[in-house]
């Protein structure tokens, strides 16, 4: 077993990047992520990594540099938050559609306006359709473990896809928690030497990246991109199995908490899942069969697996720490799509009643009382009360 | 035409120099015309042409490759010609 330490989420993730010893790190600071690249820059200065550091003049440039370095044939990392991710937007699509396995911690932070530096998921959810793999993390340990696994996943020969590792800004990035590190050598052996595919710097075999593809082939390339995303689930599970053997810590496509025999359930991601599990326990103590599902792999979304895990419930609340104004929350859209496809024995299946709560925007505290409010409402719906409002806000002053 | 399963992921073009097969000259609305008697063989046109469409044989300007010349007029602008007489003039396509 590796060293046990009391560290912030940012420090844990920075250490995972150090252990991966990338060839290139392009960076631009932004709260609350700055701490990651700042620490990484000191690893470079101290000679703890062999990485070439590129101080870019914006996040758009930082992602552009990462794309160039990755196409050149190196293992590449960067990190960002919020507006930084928003500024990277066009380049995110290019990284994924060019099959460049760039690894990027995303410290989730609210988007402007109004200007806010605290944690919510509006940045990551906005990047939902960029073609990146997204792994979400409840705490510092998961953020560290996901970052280590991200290299194996993204760099897998069947994928070659960029990976975003998400954790909640400040709540996780700046809080100190106990974590178990793997030894440097364990990580090195686990992720292996970087193997490049079609490197631009292989001068014996000149090639071109970024061609113009018009009406004759564009759609075929997009179809291929979807196909490659379809291979991600298997790789994520295979890597998780190897990671379990190494660390003793189990990961899947999502985490099920007391869900098997549950009647009501909550779907909630990242740090709020920890608070909610305590409330699940409290409701169980009261004799109410509550459970929880915490997605880990949000892109590609494991529709059938999640539907299988939820379909026996009577009522489910999907918690969104991001909003779609005039629409349902982004997680709710996925969960309802997943459950709509559930088919039974042909005689008509009862599906869970679904509600959607928007919570914790701009770092608004998510308290156990809010989870209690949700489970109380779900309990009433499960017993026959009508759904009054599908989408509602909790923790907001009326 | 290729099917999606036959494509190289990431749209990487593995064949060097394949842009030769993609003829871009049809986009042209003006074409450069070379007036040999005004040419001093300075090769500015060859140096400035963004599309390598100036055909140089044994160190001498010999004309244009209209499969690739996009008619930008850079060569005509840069051409010093002889005694103020341009050796390249731009003319409307199809004239
Ligand atoms: S018109 Fe432009 S593209 Fe054509 S030969 Fe002259 S410089 Fe080259
Ligand atoms: S720039 Fe004009 S003068 Fe010089 S080589 Fe070309 S055509 Fe001749």
Report the span from N to C terminus of chain B. Answer: 35 Å
Largest interface: A-B, 22 and 18 residues
Structural class of chain A: alpha/beta
Compute the gyration radius of chain A: what is it? Answer: 21 Å
CATH class designation of the largest domain in chain A: Alpha Beta
Sketch the topology of chain B as an H/E string, one letter per element: EHEEHE
Number of domains of chain A: 2
Question: Ranges of chain A with pLDDT <50 over ≥5 residues?
Answer: none
Oligomeric form of this entry?
heterodimer
Shape of chain B: elongated
Can you put this structure into words, describing what you see?
- The complex is a heterodimer of chains A (398) and B (95).
- In chain A, 40% of the residues lie in helices and 17% in strands.
- By secondary structure, chain A is of the alpha/beta class.
- Chain A has two domains: 4-190 and 205-247, Thiamin diphosphate (ThDP)-binding fold, Pyr/PP domains (Rossmann fold), CATH 3.40.50; 255-393, 3-Layer(aba) Sandwich (Rossmann fold), CATH 3.40.50.
- Chain A has a six-stranded mixed sheet, with helices on both faces.
- In chain A, helix 7 (140-154) packs across helix 10 (232-247).
- Chain A is globular.
- The model of chain A has no long low-confidence stretch (mean pLDDT 97).
- The mean pLDDT of chain B is 95.
- In chain B, the strands form two sheets. A two-stranded antiparallel ribbon of chain B has the order 1-4. A two-stranded antiparallel ribbon of chain B has the order 2-3.
- Chain B has one domain (22-92): Alpha-Beta Plaits.
- The termini of chain B are far apart.
- Chain B is α+β, with helices and mostly antiparallel strands.
- Chain B has two helices and four strands; from the N terminus they run E-H-E-E-H-E.
- The A-B interface holds A 97-100, 160, 198, 205-211, 213, 216-217, 220-221, 223-224, 227-228 and B 1-5, 7-19.
- The site of one iron/sulfur cluster has 13 residues of chain B, from helix 2.
